[in-house]
């Protein structure tokens, strides 16, 4: 590689460092960052009687992994998962569990076998059923696409952010499965 | 005499007309029929009203009863929904499938909404304090149960089945029992209410039917009584008429026999040569003519009565002065009065207005009264004839007063009946046909007037002809007179 090639590489790296990836996707021009659509965000929901309003991502991860079993009000935590193939489930597996389906199954089965996980997450067929589950179970926690959230459940802030806030973690890239999306 | 008659009873001619004349009897029958018809009509109306009231009250109570039945049905639905609420909750225990658990939870919540709405409706319709208390208790117990149910559902969904069962056994069962008990209480209340309303319906129906039956029976009895009375009246009228006709025949026969006997005797005397000289012959001839004259008068009276009955009297109406009529009547009866040795006192109020009548007929009417006064005297040979103006009635009153035997109170109602002769008169062998007063009264009525009597037994009688003054004579009453005139009593 000659000196000329080193110069070109340096310029390109400078450009990459100066502009974020999404700005680069828009042609590389610097612009005001748009606010994300909340309906396309993944909301973490709990029962309305649950006093928790905010969770850190670390706490959330512990809850979903079954490392934490009870809420501060004493209710047992019941994790609700959507059925296989749902985009929301894939986001949760990827971002919270940081596992694929196989890894998740192995983790749950192994955890129950070892006694690390007391109650396996409930697998529910649709967002509607999941919403009703959260509504009926005081200790339930689950996730819903923003457009599936209604007043029967409470949305929990994650690291102080609500769906749609800048920096909110869980964004859904795929459209909802037509199975039961309200 | 006038003071002596102070206490005498005055019988209004109208009363006699309505009670005892042939016309009145006929009218009475018609009146009875009309009354009977009106009675039946009234009964029918009463029956209709009773039936209408019965229908209304029945519909009203039926509506109330339907309310109870609806209430019972609603309670039945609430009982079912309450059971469904609990059943669905317990079903959720039987599975670990979260989807099914949520479905059961949904079913339980749907069912509990039905119960909650039913309780609210019951409370809204509750009227009595007892119902309100029962409703409030039910609402409280149901709310308590739902709290437990929610907790149980929550535990089931959270995967704590053991705790859910424990909670249900500890609290859910007892709370639900209370709800069931409350619902049973409300149901029994509705049952009792429905039974009471049924009893009320039955009682109302019974009493209405009793009233209706009573009204119908009363009407039937009354109707039958009226029919019986009408028939009885007809039979009695027919019997009385037959008796009167028999009496009339007997009386006329007797009246005919007396002059005929005299005529026959005189004729036999002439035939047998007993009237051997002209004086005796004149005497027997006079007997024959006198008795024949009496026969003629008797026949005239019968014909006149017949004419008055059929309203065929001929008339020559004109303005008449009262003294003119009285002079005619006195002239016609003068011989009889003189022969009987009676004195007649006549007093006519001055300046009396004229009357419109037929002189002959009105004179005949007064003659009948004068002859009766002579016939029924009791030894006092006096007759008073008074004419005066009755300003109140706008009529002229002509009274014929005697000091005779008088008329018994019981007889007063019948003396104007044709052919009627009182038993006392018959027993005293006072001859007559019983037609004089009837003819006189009918004659007065033809001229728009009336004939009344006041009397006292042993003191005497006053017969008064009331005649409207000239301008008040009814035109329709003047055309009923027929062909018979000149009758004599």
Describe, in plain words, how this protein is organized in 3D.
The complex is a heterodimer of chains A (182) and B (489). Chain A has helices spanning 3-18, 21-25, 57-65, 87-97, 101-114, 127-136; strands at residues 42-47, 54-55, 78-82, 122-124, 140-145, 153-158. By secondary structure, chain A is α/β, with parallel strands linked by helices. Chain A has 2 domains: 1-31, no CATH class; 38-158, Periplasmic binding protein-like II (D-Maltodextrin-Binding Protein, domain 2, 3-Layer(aba) Sandwich). The longest helix of chain A has 16 residues, at 3-18. The radius of gyration of chain A is 20 Å and the shape is globular. Chain A starts with a helix and ends in a 24-residue tail after the last strand. In chain B, strand 5 and strand 6 (395-402) form a beta hairpin. Chain B folds into 2 domains: 35-218, Four Helix Bundle (Hemerythrin (Met), subunit A), CATH 1.20.120; 311-479, Heat Shock Protein 90. Chain B has helices at residues 13-20, 22-93, 98-125, 129-157, 161-271, 278-310, 322-340, 359-375, 409-412, 423-427, 436-446; strands spanning 9-11, 317-320, 343-348, 355-358, 382-390, 395-402, 450-456, 460-468. Chain B is built from 11 helices and 8 strands. Chain B starts with 8 loop residues before the first strand and ends in a 21-residue tail after the last strand. In chain B, helix 2 (22-93) runs antiparallel to helix 5 and helix 4 (129-157) runs antiparallel to helix 5 (161-271). At the A-B interface, strand 4 and helix 6 of A face helix 3 and helix 4 of B.
